[in-house]
User: What shape does this take?
Amino acid sequence: MAGESVSAALVVLLWGSLLVKLQALHWRVRDPDQRANCVSLLAVALAMTVFHPPIYRAIDRAAGIPNFSRLLGNSLGVVSAWAFQPVIIRLLHDRAHKRGILGSGWLVTGTIAIMALLFFRASVPVEAPMDFQARYSAAPYTAEYRLVLLAYIGILVLQIFLRSLRNGRVIGSIPQSYLRLQARVQTIGWGLGVAYAGLECGYIAFALVGIVSPHTYPSTLAYTLFASGCGALLSGGLLGAYHWGGQYRTYRLLYPLWRDLYHATPGIALDPPHSARADMLTLRNLDLHLYRRVTEIRDGVVALHRYTDAAMHDRARTFCCGTDMPAEDISACTDAIVWAAAIQAKRRGERVLIPVGATPMRTGMDLGAEVRHLERVARAYRKCAGCAGTLGDEAHFPPPLPTRMGGEQ
Amino acid sequence: MDMKRVKKRCEARLRDLPIPVPFDVHIFAEQVAARRGRPIVLHPMPLLGSPFGACVPRPAADYVVYEQDTTPLHRQHIIVHELCHLICGHLAVGAGDPIAFRSAESPDEPQALSRATYDDDDEQEAEMLTTLILVRVYGAQANTAADPDVVGVLRLLDRLEGLNSGG
Assistant: This one.
């Protein structure tokens, strides 16, 4: 029953991954690599659906051949490996566009034909959706059948695993933690795939020469390796969802600050949402929308330069230093108060005599650091925007300059 | 202009646009200059927020003036925006010596071919192309890897995941 549940979960995960991928590609597969990846994932999803016990039995009944689903599912697995081969070749040799030996149409046809031949020569009379390997792995012709299957798929998995190991140093240098984790978990997934193929091949080979008993198949270990390997490879989708959630939270967190800056200087927005609700429903292309929000906030802040001066910064900093917040928050809180005061000053048309000089540079060229700083500013802005009133008080500011910008929005 | 159409057009431009790896805005400017056959001079100035940057074509060179008093990422965005005007072949509206740029216009509120608002089609197109370029740069992490082989792998993985595919 547990096996069936894991199988059902894998099927759902695979079809979900395929749908998410197609949705990310806007249902249009543009180039050969994307096509190869999607066809490969489709074949795996179909294979695992065929292996799901209730469907396995239904196909067997429809075909009238016990374990015909095994041949069908395994053939789909080979097709999946074949379809993915161009991507492997590109991963191994970036500029190559060939399919490689394993990508040969003749080889895949031959492999499936040999598997079919061996399958129909084998005696597999009892339907075994969950324990085929345990029951038949070392049986005549079935052993050869599985060796052909595992040789084809195993070499592919080994290629990717070795490439992932080679890229280990680079993976460690990826700044975004979720991408780093995703790459590492996938390397583990390919490693588990290699271990599974190795275990199967080793067991069959040892059983054929009589070193191990044909009835001592380590089914729990094999299934654990297989399921955890698939789970690790598919975990990218879950980590992607986690990343999406984080981006959405940040996008919404920055909204009040962006909204007030936008109202102060409407020209900063390239494609502003029609309403707060429309902004809340911005669910797609969050990379782009979040980047726009960060840029537009910076535009809005720069547009306030004529409404901020050094004294304003000093007063805000003194106010924040009077609290017991950490240094990072002091900097963010200072920005929040100054920006809020500048927004109010702009509404009143009150320019400063000597605009503030250089904005303190804190974030370098790291977009992630910039986003994290703005998150802190946005939190502080929500909490202490009211404090800006003390900075925007007329007693602290020179009278408005007689310019044509006075009274602008 | 319909923003979806602007985006589609910019995505088409982006497909033929070489982006330096790792990304460096000065190298990018050199590439654009080589493509146009005219030198580009990047010139920081305190513009006090209006505009954020400007593109000033002169007989000897194209001058890109940008706000100096902002974060490095924002400065980079402003420069790429002005370069995108040149990539898109937009006509310059303002002209003049970049040093005298502010005094030639109203000192309170300089008005020139500038990145200040997105009211016209050229500004929208340049800003959208800038956004797509820099989202690709940050998304692909191309700026973190100097090994072209690794960059190729990262770009392939991005394509497979449908990142930066627009829509």
User: Anything to note?
Assistant: Chain A has two domains: 2-241, 254-396.
